[in-house]
Design brief:
- It comes from Streptomyces purpurascens.
- Pfam families: adh_short_C2 (PF13561).
- This protein is an alpha/beta fold.
- The protein is built from seven helices and nine strands.
- Strands 3-2-1-4-5-6-9 form a seven-stranded parallel sheet, sandwiched between helices. It has a two-stranded parallel sheet with strand order 7-8.
- Helix 6 links the parallel strand 7 and strand 8.
């Protein structure tokens, strides 16, 4: 399996001996991140809710790099499963050093069309699940653990109507990340937030019907790749003096 923009393994495996869990790891940014962390030396648990075959393909790709891997199904909309997948990953791979909160849902639409069911689901997946997974991970992580959460460029700039619910859910992650950094800092556990812009994935392809407008909103005038986001996640997984921070990987969307 190959992923968009994923670089080759580095000569120095900065994450050798570490165990990571990537939620929403069966495709797109999640799959690219799982492979990049494996290239850096980590064993990787791949969380998914749909797409079992795709998740298992990522597992095989990780194993082909000489790392251990396992696919774990968990629905982030379910509170018990959002936390439970962390315990399952730690049990399967013998611990947990890195949590990548990547699973999320995108729901855009006019304010008046959004139902209470829509609100509850988006907040459950994009906010509550991140909190619960981070809480469960912090209870298991040794000193020097890493919590890395994927947000959105729309938390910094909402370029048009229809994004109220989604932007609200992603903006909440900034406060959570800063609070986690303060609460866990004494243990050397860092918490950081990555804010992708328009990224070429099957959910939002660079040749899709709305792609040209999204690309035009960036300073670089193009979509990013999943591998470019994964590179930032890999950096934060190895960084020791970076915490409570937000990193835009958005091609200048917020510039």
């Amino acid at each position: 399996m190959t992923s968009q923009g994923t670089s080759r393994a580095t000569s120095q495996e900065t994450l050798h001996g570490k165990v990571a869990l990537v939620t929403g790891g069966s495709r797109g940014i999640g799959a690219a991140t799982a492979l990049r962390l494996a290239q850096e030396g980590a064993d990787v648990a791949v969380g998914y809710v749909n797409g079992k075959e795709a998740a298992e393909e990522v597992v095989r790709a990780v194993e082909a790099l000489g790392r251990r891997s396992v696919a774990l199904r968990a629905d982030s909309a379910d509170a018990a499963e959002a936390a439970g997948v962390v315990a399952a990953a730690a049990e399967a791979l013998g611990g947990l050093d890195i949590l990548v909160n990547n699973a999320g849902v995108g729901l855009l639409g006019p304010l008046e069309t959004l139902s209470l069911t829509d609100v509850d689901r988006v907040l459950a997946v994009n906010v509550r699940a991140v909190f619960l997974a981070s809480q469960a991970a912090a209870a298991r992580m040794p000193e020097g653990g890493r919590i890395i959460t994927l947000g959105s460029c729309m938390a910094q700039r909402v370029p048009g109507p229809g994004g109220a619910l989604y932007a609200m859910s992603k903006a909440a992650l900034a406060g959570l990340t800063k609070a986690l950094a303060r609460e866990l800092g004494e243990r050397g556990i860092t918490a950081n937030l990555v804010l992708p812009g328009p990224i070429d994935t099957d959910m939002n392809p660079a040749d899709g019907p709305f792609a040209s407008g999204q690309a035009a909103m960036t300073a670089l005038g193009r979509f990013g790749t999943a591998g470019e986001v994964a590179s930032m996640v890999a950096y934060l997984a190895g960084a020791t003096y970076v915490t409570g921070a937000e990193f835009a990987v958005d091609g200048g969307h917020a510039a």
